[in-house]
Design brief:
Layout: H1 2-16, H2 23-30, H3 34-40, H4 44-68, H5 74-91, H6 93-99, H7 103-106, H8 110-118, H9 124-130, H10 136-157, H11 164-189
Helix pairs in contact: 1-2, 4-5, 4-6, 5-10, 5-11, 10-11
């Protein structure tokens, strides 16, 4: 029943926008009483938090599958992964903004840290594939650089409403900058 509520509200959020998000609307869309909803989620913030966790999981699975697809060249996978990540940041921007009020309740909880840890993308194998002859220090640096730049950019970029063309254009620019850095490190190992 809890998952049905979330799926219902995802549909509601997409149709009406996060600003009209209420627990009453969630219950109505799910066809349950508000009391039943509160059995699963004690407040609006807990529903938003669960929606955010679901987004993290979905995005983690998507990005991980892109990075692990050995049928596609590594640098092409990097382009696709960055574009997909930036698009996902734009798509979940409303949820993140709505969670700002709830963040004092969730940011320092064990559930928050567990959810973040469980949805972390393992890019080490991908970085090793991109730079097979590099020393561990170079690999760690590129991994850290890639994660910091892409996540920071995605968060900041998604604070404004963006068109698909903007997402593609900016994601490509970020990917090209990172590929230049990766290639410069590859040359050092030859």
């Amino acid at each position: 029943m809890g998952q049905e509520c979330l799926i219902s509200e995802l549909s509601n959020k997409a149709e009406e926008g996060i600003r009209r998000f209420t627990t009453l609307r969630v219950a109505e869309r799910a066809g349950i009483s508000i009391g039943s909803l509160y059995q699963y989620f004690p407040n609006k913030a807990s529903i938003l938090f669960q929606l955010q966790i679901n987004e993290w999981k979905k995005n983690q699975q998507l990005i991980q599958s892109i990075l692990e697809d050995n049928e596609i060249a590594p640098l092409e996978r990097l382009d696709t992964a960055i574009r997909s990540f930036v698009q996902s940041e734009c798509d979940e921007s409303d949820i993140r903004k709505a969670l700002v009020d709830a963040s004092p309740f969730y940011r320092k909880t064990e559930d928050f840290y567990v959810a973040k840890a469980n949805t972390r993308i393992n890019i080490k194998p991908f970085i090793n594939e991109l730079m097979p002859n590099s020393c561990s220090e170079s690999l760690e640096f590129i991994e850290d650089l890639l994660v910091r730049i892409v996540t920071s950019f995605g968060k900041q970029f998604s604070e404004e409403s963006r068109t698909e063309e903007e997402v593609v254009h900016y994601s490509k620019a970020i990917a090209n900058m990172l590929k230049t850095q990766i290639n410069s490190y590859k040359l050092r190992t030859l």
